[in-house]
């Protein structure tokens, strides 16, 4: 299901990113060697009153080459296009400015729900000044202090009221996937090639949601899929849409809605920072991942070319060691017929459950092979474990002290579980809990 989306707009320095970080919190934990995930965060998932939502800080989509007003205008356009609820941030310090008025007019015309924040109301005396902001014609201004974190509860209460309860049909057996990657790696070509395969039956091409053109199809084996469209396929040519941050944001939104991500890289060019960022996000979000090396027809091959390329991928995407790699060509269609079965397999692995008794046998064996670590004279004790979730498979391990289950030992346990069960393509989470 697509999350309802809140977008934050406003001129520079009013406190957008401060507010974004407050609202987003740090629900998405960051694996240390996942590069670039926290840096310049402009997209996150938050929760309020049990409702999950996505949040975008359009201020982070800065196109510095553009004149000031054009920049804000484009950010507001993105907000209007992407969001269910728009939060306009202003500041009590400068009062109502021309830029505020311009954005307010744009938002007013969009007919989207808009919540007006007056930020930097750090003390009660400043509250009387928020009345000037009624002139923006966007209803009641909400006094907020991003620095202190005050007033945001009321804003979120109001935002949640505007979330539509439109539920995207959650068709049980359907696997949703998306092709993610830099511009020009061949996402559109792969899309067309996959859908053009003889035995694939495309049932529907419909703009089902605002931000995506999804395609439903059924593979040879009868498995229904939904292919989720991503950025880069609708080349509309606004400056902001050609920026990397915009493309990253669109990719993150597609990842959110997918069960399995096909991380497309170009066999010709190798792996870039962008790829690592996106892959890191898919990993953090617990999605299934397949690494698709496209344009393999262009690569001069010798005996070990494929093996060497795979080793390079393993080095660059260390945390994705579970992701299968496939070498394809959208042009010659080499190996494309293997993709649907691979996606299906990864999706099955994401949904795999292992019984507690089997898991505990694995844990006992693990401890026998590699004794639990000690820290400051204290030894980690593992009492038992149980699988608490699928998509991704998540295991809670009950221990004497949570801090004693270091990353490296958790990693070792994960590997022992992976040796026993085919969790290929899916992240596996290990969570330590102190036994009460
Ligand atoms: P953005 O450019 O709109 O994303 O603004 P930032 O979030 O980067 O904030 C700009 C500046 O305003 C920073 O120095 C913040 O520390 C400061 N700031 C943000 N919120 C508040 C607030 O509620 N009160 C005060 N006094 N300063 C704030
Ligand atoms: P997108 O921006 O990721 O959607 O990439 P496109 O599908 O538009 O492809 C970019 C360019 O790469 C186009 O000129 C394609 O014809 C070319 N291309 C895509 N896949 C392949 C491939 O497997 N082999 C070769 N030789 N060219 C490809």
Automatic annotation (TrEMBL):
Keywords: GTP-binding, Nucleotide-binding, Repeat, Ribosome biogenesis
CDD domains the UniProt entry points to: EngA1 (cd01894), EngA2 (cd01895)
InterPro entries found in the cross-reference section: G_ENGA, GTP-bd, GTPase_Der, KH_dom-like, KH_dom-like_a/b, P-loop_NTPase, Small_GTP-bd
PROSITE patterns per UniProt: G_ENGA
Binding site residues for GTP 1: 10-17, 57-61, 119-122
Signal peptide start-end: none
SUPFAM superfamilies linked: P-loop containing nucleoside triphosphate hydrolases
The EngA-type G domain, residue ranges: 4-167, 175-351
Family, per entry: Belongs to the TRAFAC class TrmE-Era-EngA-EngB-Septin-like GTPase superfamily. EngA (Der) GTPase family.
Its job: GTPase that plays an essential role in the late steps of ribosome biogenesis.
Protein name per Swiss-Prot or TrEMBL: GTPase Der
Biological source species: Vagococcus humatus
Lineage, opening ranks: Bacteria, Bacillati, Bacillota, Bacilli, Lactobacillales
Gene name per UniProt: der
